[in-house]
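Methods, example record. To illustrate the input and output format used throughout this study, we show the complete record for Homoserine O-succinyltransferase. The sequence lines were provided to the predictor; the line carrying structure tokens was produced by it.
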Amino acid sequence: MSLSRNHNVLASTCPIDAACGSRFGAGDAAFDAHDDTPAGADAMRGEIVVSLDLRHAGRREVALRYEIQGGKGLPVVFVAGGISANRHVAPSRAFPEAGWWPSQVGAGCAIDPAHHRIVSFDWVGADGALDAPIDPADQADAIIALLDVLGIARIHAFIGSSYGAMVGLQFAALHGERLGQLVAISGVHRSHPYASAWRALQRRAVALGALQCDENHGLGLARQFAILSYRTPEEFDARFAPARVVDGRVRVGAEDYLDHCAARFAGRSSAVAYQRLSESIDLQSVDPSRIRVPVTVVAVVEDRLVPLADAHALVEELRGGTCPREPRLHVLRSPYGHDAFLKEEADIDTILRDALARTVASDDSHIASQEISA
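The corresponding predicted structure is encoded as:
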């Protein structure tokens, strides 16, 4: 893996909030001496160009676009979401747009820029420029490349949801010496065959749209299929009215909602990006026995993409490995299924606060593993 130091930075000139001192010990510090954050900025964005050796496509040059909130010297937390998430996790004075996880990142939240230096990036392939298979392990290597350029030797925690949890497990297995702990929410060590079948049909919808010279229609239809896999019958039963006849045709209660989801998504994604990142989920394969950092796993009973049985299997394999602490499994109930990490704000907040408050021990002591119903 080689690096090209093309490094562009954009930041705010607003004064940063007074930050707490580092809560790392001397051996657990986050070094960001090469971070180009201007003095007085409350958030910054940048872009670097790196050459990555992709597992299924050889060496490729890719752009990594990142965003950072929080002061230098604070414990570094890397935050990653699903394939439609991006580097903008939550609003700041510099970048006031809402972001994809403002309920968990921000002042007073579990991941608070007054106490943590929050790093995030756009997934490799998210810009549609890379039309090649992308392994989740390639994303983990890209994060290492980014941390190297930023001069961050070790991150306190990797918090990943959905695809981000999968990449977090890859990061822990491949680069565990650079990681304090992992929180994996609704993502495990493999792609379940049922979930892969859902995604294969979504990719066919995108391909059908391309054949019809209507990329947006294909993307929109794929997104609608995806929404059905993220959510649950229980939510739709409680939320939507029965079918009715409108202008001579039957229209079901959820169609307006699904059309809205399709329109929003098709305007901000590309067919290539969707195809390649969807494929990447299906390439997930991690040997949990290789993970040697503390792991918190969060599963949702109603999640049809990541069955609870797979979360149990992951925890059992982690327990049989060489982790310095017993893994923790939190089990939630939610009508929002796979999207619970976005919707069950109080439960996720409690879990994240607990995980971030726990110290990263280097000895062989073990904390009793427990399944926690939040």
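Annotations derived from this record:
The CA atoms of residues 76 and 137 lie 21 Å apart.
The chain has two domains: 2-191+285-373, 193-282.
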